[in-house]
Amino acid sequence: MIASEHLSGVPLLVLANKQDIPDCMGVHTVKPIFNQNAHLIGARDIMLMATSALTGDGVDEGIRWLVDCIKRNNVDRPPRNHDDKL
């Protein structure tokens, strides 16, 4: 799904939750997985954010980043008209 041409240019926010747990898979472990699959992800804004839903750490920052990307993309990459050819 991540490689779908319909998602080309759509920002991708990945929330690495459970960062409040000592033995969780941290961002430094998850990031190389995304780097190895960059060819599938394509050219887009991407953020891998360490979060804890329990404490709220990182959640606001991640959502703000996504909102900023959407605002910027609305100008730089306006939405396609549904009737336009892809």
Automatic annotation (TrEMBL):
Provide a Gene Ontology MF annotation, just one: GTPase activity
User: Which keywords, in A-to-Z order, does the entry hold?
Assistant: GTP-binding, Nucleotide-binding
Pfam families xrefs:
Arf
Please name the SUPFAM superfamilies in this protein's record: P-loop containing nucleoside triphosphate hydrolases
| GO CC, any one term | Golgi apparatus
Family matches, as Gene3D superfamilies: P-loop containing nucleotide triphosphate hydrolases
So where does GTP get bound?
17-20
What is an annotated GO biological process for this record, any one? protein localization to Golgi apparatus
Q: What protein is this chain from?
A: ADP-ribosylation factor-related protein 1
